Amino acid sequence: MKNKTAYLINILWSEEDQCYIAEVPELEGCITHGKTSEQALKHVHQAIESWIMAAKKLKHPIPKPALMRKASGKFNVRLPQALHKDLIIRATREKVSLNQMVTTLLAKGL
Length: 110
Known about the structure:
With 110 residues, the protein is α+β, with helices and mostly antiparallel strands. Helices cover 42% and strands 13% of the residues. A hairpin with a 7-residue loop joins strand 2 and strand 3. The longest helix is centred in the middle third of the chain and has 21 residues, at 37-57.
């Protein structure tokens, strides 16, 4: 199956279910489990293939994996006026542009 491993996969231990849960956030409802993380990963690849086959059959859109999407480096964001003002003040104090300040703060947060 082409690109099945390009999708982001989350594998977490479920205390409640006493197994590993594997989910593909980009493919709504694509979730499975296994007794080990390796088993959950194997199962999730099968689930991705099944999810894509079902979407094709139903003529539903299949999202491109996030890792394969182009990033322009630009995005717009709306934020509260007070936060905007605080960011402008901080950028001014540090003698950088607002864009540079926001980029720096985002990078530190990641």
